Amino acid sequence: TLILAIESSCDETAASVVKNGREVLSNVISSQIALHTQFGGVVPEIASRKHIEKINQVVTQALEDAKVTLADVDAIGVTYGPGLVGALLVGVAEAKAIAFAAKKPLVGVHHIEGHVSANYIENPDLEPPFVCLIVSGGHTHLVIVKDYGEFEIIGRTRDDAAGEAFDKVARAVGLGYPGGPKVDKTAKEGNPHAIEFPRAKVEGSPYDFSFSGLKSAVLNYINKAHMTGEEINVPDLVSSFQNAVVEALVSRAVLAAKEYGYDKLAIAGGVASNSALRAAMQEACDKAHIRFYHPSPIFCTDNAAMIGCAAYYEYKKGTRHGWDLNAVPNLKLGER
Ligand code: ATP
Ligand code: MG
Ligand code: FE
Fold first, then answer.
1. Does the annotation place 125 within a ligand binding site?
2. Among all ligands shown, which has an atom nearest to the Cα of 136?
């Protein structure tokens, strides 16, 4: 079964051809990062326009790289939420047009189900059920993947998403956008124990996260240094911040796997490419005799291959969308 998948929920225009949900035949990503960097973040209107400009080219390239034609494809998969409405609409319109013209079924996919499914690409032995920590730019969820596309949410952030915290701290210390990868790199030159930042616990909810207190502590630290004229050691600062985030993520994810009795733990989303998180998660899982799964960095951040994986399992379950499929900017996980 071949899926042609399209992703345009944020600032990546992407298309991919995926075979049987696990084998990526092509993975084309046109990133708009350079375009948005000058504004310090994604400008929705600019993102939509750029998607329109790129989408046809990206889809054509994906088919070409996979050495297939539209006729070979069994279904068209597309992200229809959550994300920026104008950005999503471009991918949804493209997918509907292709599916209609080529007489192929249309399968709408939840972007976060895509992030989780990225784990299937390089881990042929990974099958539900397992615990998954979803850490992206807009989401921080701890879920049990009960079956393909079936999630039980057991924890979530009460305020900022993990990726958002990385981006805000990076901006505050002048590392630029997107902040995650820059913090990751700069933190390698710092001491993760240099500054003791608070570890927030959500009272009565052992699997929930909170990052706004940590973010405020970092900003206060910076402001205080500015007032006293003290020099800030940026590598130490971001390394200590990153360490606090990683500790919060790892401790809750591993606790969840143990308490709920799963011996498989996966991570997903852009922050899953963070080198400190991966190392700490591996170490904690080894200790607890849990198998740790993660996608390669290219499949952690936004891409269409992960959408192709998710679309395949939805397609097998019989999920089909009509020509009235619309972008749903605040689509909830588990909704169809
Ligand atoms: P969502 O998937 O929730 O809709 P998104 O698609 O914008 O949001 P992703 O593409 O999954 O988010 O991930 C982007 C986020 O991941 C950004 O916040 C970015 O800073 C963060 N990120 C990327 N690489 C790293 C890294 N190496 N370390 C930490 N954070 C990272
Ligand atoms: Mg992006
Ligand atoms: Fe994403």
1. no
2. 1
